[in-house]
Protein: MMPL family transporter
Amino acid sequence: MARFLYRLGSSAYRRSWPFLAFWLVLLIAVGALAGAFAKSPSTTFTIPGLDSVVTMEKMQERFPGAEDATNAPTGNIVVQAPEGAALTDPQVQAQVNEMLAEVRDAGVLSEPETIVDPVLAAQGLAAQMTPQLQAQGVPEQKITADVAAVSPLSQDETTGIVSVRFDSVSLMDIPAEDVAAVTGILDRYDEGDLTVVYNGNAFGAASGDIEMTSELIGLAVAALVLLITFGSVVAAGMPLVSAIVGVGIGILGIQLTTAFSEDINEMTPILASMIGLAVGIDYALFIVSRFRTELIKASGANDVTPKELAQRLRELDKETRAHAMGMAVGTAGSAVIFAGLTVLIALAALSIINIPFLTAMALGAAATVTLAVLIALSFLPALMGLLGTRAFAVRFPGVKAPDPEDDNPTMGLRWVRRIRKRPVTHLIAGVLLLGVLAIPASSMRLAMPTDGSATPGTPPRIAHEITADAFGPGRDAPMIALIDAADLPAEERPVAFGAGVEKFLGVEGVRNAQVVATTEDFSAAQVLITPEYGATDPETSETLQALREASADFEAETGATYGITGATPIFDDISDRLGDVLIPYIGIVLLLAFLVLLLVFRSIWVPLIAALGFGLSVAATFGVTVAIFQEGWLGLISDPQPLLSFLPIILIGLVFGLAMDYQVFLVTRMREGWTHGKTAGNATANGFKHGARVVTAAALIMISVFAAFMMQDMAFIKTMGFALAAAVFFDAFIVRMLIIPATMFLLDERAWWLPRWLDRILPKVDVEGEGIRDLEPAR
Structure:
């Protein structure tokens, strides 16, 4: 592999334009196709096979008009009268009707004639329901509770809800301009005396606009780190350019995929951007750094000033420079491939869980990482070849950018010597620190995004809060019970429905339950269940569990069965499924990565301590994230919320790949020294000296790229940005640069132990570039 990569790197350097043209044409072509065929990404989350999803599918079979609550093109307009007034006041009612008339005239809603002000709607609903329930012998108190549970007007008549449906088949099909037409009207009236906000499926996406500010800030900090690393403006720009090209192709490709798949979520391109930008810069950084080292060796310019170095490099002929690039790609490029492979393993393993939207997110990020590897191996050498002797020109004032290959002690060497003197102390300190930080993770709660977790101050969040205050927290967390009485005699079916309502009302946490629809033959009924608490409250999950546990007694008593569905149960089931697969997923990733690292390092202990160190860094990351974002410690977050359900599993997938990147780049140099005859201790110290500087730069770049995403308004992206940045910090600076060298010193020669029988059957992988060390520049 090293020889192939040598030929690839040197050829790309010599003949730049064919390689550059390929990637640029691909970028333009994918962009043109995406512009022509891309659709809006999905805003829904669902998992086939969940109890709630299966019940939803059954309900749609029995009630053809029923819709998936998570995908219906519907929303709510929440109107609140001015302080001291009510919606029943003639002047206020006139304003509301004027606003609703404009909404109807917008021409984007289905059945606009059904949109009436909440006062009239409440009066009509009460007039319709009361006689029907009285005829059924329902007590007056229950009638009042049933009407209040579905009434669009609050009991104090200050708040009203107007349900709207866009003229689209599903949520995915609503044109953005249709939503904007309605929200524009509502925002204008909200500026007057009325409080007018909106929430629900159709309006949820309107509050999650994604800005490019985070990417720009991440790139700016990365540029600064690269300038300090290379001391050259031109060289510092090369990793940025190659990373931007790779991310650009990846993001446009994901957008194009929306034309063929409905599983592409709105967060898929964001995650691909985060991981693609970080690894794209890092992989290019490793190769450019090694290229610079090879040029210094060829020029004999060790320990010279940047000005003298630039002069020496200008004196090198093109074949010597092409050979240096071939050596860089053949050595650092091999490590890049295996580092990228560990990221791909961690991401691709997410597809094993069989969650469609999660698989799409993982494969989108994996494709972007693959592009980052390919571009670092081909586009970057071609770009450097195009620049020629100007590759390290335009020096950055005040930066020397020393080369770790020379004999002068570096900060990395001084640090690892300290660890070597007291390895046990440093190992215990690192483990204890991460262990203490991990403690809050034991109270981690997971939930799917709802209007209640939207950014404070946005219309969906305000609408949720107003609705909870006026109608009760459970109004925005309804559940639907599908009672199946098909196996009962016709005369017993209504009795079973009534028994179901009584059963539900007897469950703690249920505020109201009432039959809202039946089939013509009374073989099935829908029962609306209004819980006491909101969608993300733990009490609501307990209520859902209690309702399901009561189904066995209900079946024994009546012979009928029921299942629970609706947006709240579906989201709750998704959270449970993601929590259940977390441990198996970690096991799969650790096993696969252990095998890859076993192949690279030909050691039992090195892959093992790499995996255990990753476990510590992730546990500490979860602990800090829970403490700050869920529990509100230190007051850094004004709106603590449960963590998004798929954040832990996505975080593990991304961070594991990145952690193994550092392991590969750092420990590869240690093994290289050991195979060349150094003692295990000296090889560890020398390898750390060579790898620490570039790994530090890579970690700082990743931390800055991820941390910049905390500026996004979307709570998930904000939390994910923080968690990724924290994980990289813990893994790079505590695990890889403290725990790993301390453990390597303690193991000494045992660190590279491998059973002979295993050594014989493992294929030989030339990560250190042994096969190209005898090559000379072509003439």
